[in-house]
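Technical annex, item 7. During the second reporting period the consortium partners agreed on a shared format for inverse folding records so that results from different sites could be compared directly. Each record opens with the tokenized structure and is followed by the designed sequence. A conforming record, contributed by the partner at site C, is shown below for reference.
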């Protein structure tokens, strides 16, 4: 059976991990180690609650919704050769990082909602929109929207 884990931040700024219980939309609790039987519920700020997505980044850090990540990508030009029926003379078109936030989209599952890119060839940062998949070996957790809101904006 899959263990569903959540995290939430309490009023003291401490992250708590465990099961999730919310009797009303304005009240949320995290149960230590999913221990609802003993009623060990700890109050958390509802807006900070995030669910573990069942995956880790390249450094084995657990990924939760609202985590900010960067993903290394390389895009190539695709020159298709009809004679060999393959791609030839492909060149690197873009190499860099996509920065984004982990979100759940009903039609896609857990994805990275793109914020901006960092171009390692030409330099600079550029705003970005859309979604992309999470590749553990290329994705690195760099913060979350609650502790690191400055990461939501592209550097200049």
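Designed sequence (site C submission):
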């Amino acid at each position: 059976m899959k263990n569903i884990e959540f995290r939430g931040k309490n009023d003291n700024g401490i992250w708590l991990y465990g099961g999730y219980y919310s009797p009303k939309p304005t009240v949320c609790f995290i149960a230590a180690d999913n221990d609802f039987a003993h009623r060990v519920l700890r109050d958390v700020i509802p807006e900070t609650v995030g669910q573990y997505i069942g995956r880790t980044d390249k450094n084995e850090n657990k990924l939760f919704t609202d985590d900010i990540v960067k993903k290394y990508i390389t895009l190539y030009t695709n020159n298709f050769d009809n004679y060999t029926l393959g791609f030839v003379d492909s060149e690197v078109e873009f190499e860099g990082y996509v920065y984004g936030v982990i979100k759940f989209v009903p039609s896609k599952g857990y994805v990275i909602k793109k914020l901006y890119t960092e171009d390692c060839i030409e330099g600079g940062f550029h705003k970005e929109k859309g979604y992309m998949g999470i590749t553990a070996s290329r994705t690195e957790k760099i913060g979350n929207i609650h502790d690191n809101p400055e990461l939501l904006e592209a550097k200049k």
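The CA atoms of residues 118 and 125 lie 5 Å apart. The chain has a mean pLDDT of 85. All partners now use this format for quarterly exchanges.
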